[in-house]
Amino acid sequence: MVRLITHNLLACHAKGCTTNNFPLQFKDVSIELREAEFNADFLKGLLPRIEWKALVDAARQLGDTSLPLEQPEMVDDEFLKNLHHVLLEMHIEEGAMVCPNCSHVYAISNGIPNMLLSEHEIA
Amino acid sequence: MSRPELQAPPELYYGDTEAKKYTNNTRVQQIQADMTYRALELLSLPEDEPALLLDIGCGSGLSGEILDEEGYNWIGVDVAPSMLEVALEREVEGDLFLQDIGQGFGFRPGSFDGAISISVLQWLLNAETSHPTSSPPHRLTRFFTTLHSALRNPSRAIFQFYPTSDDQIQLITSIAQKAGFGGGVVVDYPNSKKARKVYLCLFVGSGGAQQVPKGLDGEEEVGSEKAKFEARRERSGKKTNKKRKGIKDRDWILKKKDLYRKRGKESVPNDSKYTGRKRRAAF
Ligand SMILES: C[S@@+](CC[C@H](N)C(=O)[O-])C[C@H]1O[C@@H](n2cnc3c(N)ncnc32)[C@H](O)[C@@H]1O
Ligand SMILES: [Zn+2]
């Protein structure tokens, strides 16, 4: 149940891993699509918080090419519908997220990522 | 019996059996729901604006189900796998993380519009090993610092918890302050042995202009909890499950996947037996 909205907010939190620690890279993932109710205001409120390039890359990695490479200045209905689908309807169920910096592997099982660190990784 | 947090680490205390027992107990359900409503009240988010919330120590989703009901998007973290498994079974809407909050968060700055935490913080007051990173002050510091950064400015985080002494409250608030939070403690029904509840209200930003809310007072006898809970539900006037629509059928999903494949994406996952799994229709 990691959705791309969540993935887009998440950086590695291992000790000393403070640069180049975002976005986590998907590895061997399987996804499930589930409908969520569309809410334009929620999406608009979220947009300023989104790292656009990371979102587009992640979506493409999962097979969705509906988002433009550059965040559009004009937000129209079709764009919001696509954004909605990418952010809230694609669920990563299995696989892993790997830190691009320290290579820590956050395994995802049953939709739940394991964010636990071992003792030497705790800041 | 002593308090749960004195008996065993949370992921062991809330094993399969206890996780089910806890979640199925109607009295627990009622109390957790009631405290979640109160926490939302104290969070005082702008009316009718959608928000993304963090549920800290979300457990089996008793607090999260109220967030679903109120139409919030949320992310929940908990250290007990058995509790999260029950949350999955109950098909809460939030994304779930297996995470020890004492190790801190990795969320990017300004990710959340607010945070709630129901009956969790007391667990951070107990050391689990002799490793320096496991001392309560170290864990609390890590927790509050990374939480502060994950919240937007301005915003709030509300914690209902069970302190056993004023020293504990003192320790927690002083560490939260050092992490940058303003705020204070609200005590509801301070004179009632059963109804008394402690809420730590933490504020991010707005130059200390945020006022610590007043605690509830007056007659709040045991047994009226249910009435209070239901009254609040009605008062909130929001439709149950307002953000839930029908479940998309398998056809729709397969069509979408087909579309991806046609666009030449090899990485589209194969149809699993879970595709289009029915979600629980009602709370
Ligand atoms: C009494 S339950 C409350 C669950 C939920 N908030 C509710 O209202 O039903 C306390 C929860 O705190 C979780 N918890 C305790 N210590 C924790 C920690 N260090 N990190 C994350 N979760 C923790 C436990 O696993 C348990 O699920
Ligand atoms: Zn890392």
From TrEMBL, chain A:
<dbReference type="GO" id="GO:0070476">
    <property type="term" value="P:rRNA (guanine-N7)-methylation"/>
</dbReference>
<comment type="subunit">
    <text>Interacts with TRM9.</text>
</comment>
<comment type="similarity">
    <text>Belongs to the TRM112 family.</text>
</comment>
<dbReference type="Pfam" id="PF03966">
    <property type="entry name" value="Trm112p"/>
</dbReference>
<dbReference type="InterPro" id="IPR005651">
    <property type="entry name" value="Trm112-like"/>
</dbReference>
<dbReference type="GO" id="GO:0030488">
    <property type="term" value="P:tRNA methylation"/>
</dbReference>
<dbReference type="InterPro" id="IPR039127">
    <property type="entry name" value="Trm112"/>
</dbReference>
<dbReference type="GO" id="GO:0046982">
    <property type="term" value="F:protein heterodimerization activity"/>
</dbReference>
<protein>
    <recommendedName>
        <fullName>Trm112p-domain-containing protein</fullName>
    </recommendedName>
</protein>
Automatic annotation (TrEMBL), chain B:
<feature type="domain" description="Methyltransferase type 11">
    <location>
        <begin position="54"/>
        <end position="127"/>
    </location>
</feature>
<keyword id="KW-0808">Transferase</keyword>
<dbReference type="InterPro" id="IPR013216">
    <property type="entry name" value="Methyltransf_11"/>
</dbReference>
<feature type="domain" description="18S rRNA (guanine(1575)-N(7))-methyltransferase Bud23 C-terminal">
    <location>
        <begin position="202"/>
        <end position="280"/>
    </location>
</feature>
<keyword id="KW-0539">Nucleus</keyword>
<keyword id="KW-0489">Methyltransferase</keyword>
<protein>
    <submittedName>
        <fullName>Uncharacterized protein</fullName>
    </submittedName>
</protein>
<dbReference type="InterPro" id="IPR029063">
    <property type="entry name" value="SAM-dependent_MTases_sf"/>
</dbReference>
<keyword id="KW-0949">S-adenosyl-L-methionine</keyword>
<dbReference type="GO" id="GO:0016435">
    <property type="term" value="F:rRNA (guanine) methyltransferase activity"/>
</dbReference>
<dbReference type="InterPro" id="IPR022238">
    <property type="entry name" value="Bud23_C"/>
</dbReference>
<keyword id="KW-0963">Cytoplasm</keyword>
<dbReference type="Pfam" id="PF12589">
    <property type="entry name" value="WBS_methylT"/>
</dbReference>
<dbReference type="GO" id="GO:0005737">
    <property type="term" value="C:cytoplasm"/>
</dbReference>
<dbReference type="GO" id="GO:0005730">
    <property type="term" value="C:nucleolus"/>
</dbReference>
<dbReference type="Pfam" id="PF08241">
    <property type="entry name" value="Methyltransf_11"/>
</dbReference>
<feature type="region of interest" description="Disordered">
    <location>
        <begin position="263"/>
        <end position="283"/>
    </location>
</feature>
<feature type="region of interest" description="Disordered">
    <location>
        <begin position="210"/>
        <end position="249"/>
    </location>
</feature>
<dbReference type="GO" id="GO:0070476">
    <property type="term" value="P:rRNA (guanine-N7)-methylation"/>
</dbReference>
<feature type="compositionally biased region" description="Basic residues">
    <location>
        <begin position="235"/>
        <end position="247"/>
    </location>
</feature>
<comment type="similarity">
    <text>Belongs to the class I-like SAM-binding methyltransferase superfamily. BUD23/WBSCR22 family.</text>
</comment>
<feature type="compositionally biased region" description="Basic and acidic residues">
    <location>
        <begin position="223"/>
        <end position="234"/>
    </location>
</feature>
